Amino acid sequence: MTLIYSDPLFERHRTGYHPECPDRVLASTRYLESIPWFSQLPKGRLAAAHADLIARTHKSSMIELARETAAAGGGHLDEDTFVSTDSFEVALHAAGTAMAAVDQVVRGHEKNAFCLLRPPGHHATDAKSMGFCVFNNIAIAAHYARDVHDLQRILIVDFDVHHGNGTQDIFYRDANVHFMSIHRFPFYPGTGHVEETGSGPGLGTTLNIPLAFGTTRSQYLDHFRKGLDRTLAQARPELILISAGFDAHKDDPIGSLGLELEDYQSMTRWIKEAAQVHANGRIVSCLEGGYNLEVLPRLIETHVAALAES
Ligand SMILES: [Zn+2]
């Protein structure tokens, strides 16, 4: 079964007139809960992350800045990243939810999980909130899986249209956590060149698949499939984490790399097959980008349907 985490709490990170807005989760939840099969999926319990677990991933000065800015009534953490009064609490719950999902999936209570959360995370580096991201939820979940559940090999697959620079930075020298990102390039945030492959003990554990605007769907899927096969053979992951951004869809107002709904079904099925090889099917997927409020709910539906199919 696929465990679903969603909660109105994630609407309390108020960003004003901004593409990364509360309506993303509100519209998605409303739509998804109207679908009989979806509404019957088991629901996970939200949890706030303890600050000491976040401190495995982020510098205390960064955590404090988010806390203080929210406590002062809100403000900018970087030019794109705004927090409101409740945002620190919401961000703790986003990270905590990713960790709670890891608990459930690693303990074998459910095969996989999808976390319909915000703020997103993959741009947040160890020292800086950026690109709509306060804390790096997927990186925090990976550290948690390694340190608390003692997993030796973890793979993060990031199909958001933007490069997951924060996740790459955090694990760049890490031999245990492999990172594969497929993204539009050149594009925000400017990183994700094919020659960025890791360093020191992490050399070869980062795989970037940068694709130019205008890349066709079949080319995209071909690159994704080959990259996943290559990473899988090398990483032999005991757990796969997905940075599930849906902004490479053709109707996305920010990313638009031309993907269609069914392409997310294909990618999710391939990741599921990959998870069967070494990870006993274990996947935790967390929402990243995706800004078309009409299309995002259907993209999530497609992704979760593929996660949930037997
Ligand atoms: Zn994105």
Secondary-structure map:
Blueprint: E1 2-5, H1 23-33, H2 36-39, H3 51-54, H4 60-71, E2 74-78, E3 81-84, H5 87-106, E4 112-115, H6 137-147, E5 154-158, H7 165-171, E6 177-184, E7 206-211, H8 217-235, E8 239-244, H9 261-278, E9 283-287, H10 296-308
Parallel strand pairs: 1-4, 4-9, 5-6, 5-8, 6-7, 8-9
Antiparallel strand pairs: 2-3
Zinc ion (ZN) is lined by residues 160-162, 245, 247, 255, 288-289.
Describe the 3D structure:
With 310 residues, the chain is of the alpha/beta class. It is built from ten helices and nine strands. It has a single domain, classed as Histone deacetylase domain (Arginase, Chain A), CATH 3.40.800. The protein has helices spanning 23-33, 36-39, 51-54, 60-71, 87-106, 137-147, 165-171, 217-235, 261-278, 296-308; strands spanning 2-5, 74-78, 81-84, 112-115, 154-158, 177-184, 206-211, 239-244, 283-287. The strands form two sheets. It has a seven-stranded parallel beta sheet, sandwiched between helices. Strands 2-3 form a two-stranded antiparallel sheet. Strand 5, helix 7 and strand 6 (177-184) form a beta-alpha-beta unit. The mean pLDDT is 97. The protein binds zinc ion (ZN). Zinc ion (ZN) binds at residues 160-162, 245, 247, 255, 288-289.
